[in-house]
TrEMBL record:
Bilayer-spanning residue ranges: none
InterPro entries: DnaJ_C_subfamily_28 (IPR052573), DnaJ_homolog_subfam-C_membr-28 (IPR018961)
Segment forming the signal sequence: none
Domain DnaJ homologue subfamily C member 28 conserved: from-to ranges: 7-73
Name the UniProt record assigns to this protein: DUF1992 domain-containing protein
Amino acid sequence: MRLLDALVEQRIAAAAARGEFDDLPGAGAPLALDDDALVPEEVRVANRILKNAGFVPPAVEQLRALRDLQTELNAVSDQATLCRLQARILALDMALESLRGGPMVLPREYCRRIAERLSERVGSGATANAGSQ
C-alpha cells in the first residue's frame, strides 16, 4: 500500500508542478471546512441553528471539559486534589464512552454522582490522614 501511496503522491506533485491544478474551480478560495455533506438534509438546518446559538454536541462539550481537567491535573501537586480530578476525569471518560456506544452505557447523572462520591471519599480520607500525622 505504501508503494501505491508514494506513486499517487508523486503523480500529484508532478501534475501540480505542470500547473494542471491552477485553473480548477475554487482555486485560491478558502475551503469550506464546516461542510455538512455527510449530514442528512433534514438535520442540517437544526444543526446550523444550534451551532449559531452557541450549542455544541455533548461529546464536544465533554471533550473540552476533559482537556481542561487534564490541564488542571498537570498543575496540581496535592494528593487530595489530584484524586478528586482523577475521579472527575474517570466520570467524563465513562460518559464519553457511552456517547460513542462503548461497552459501558451509563447516564451522565450517574457518572457525575460517582465522581462526587469518589471526591467526597478522597476528601474525607485526606483530612483523616492529615489529622493522624
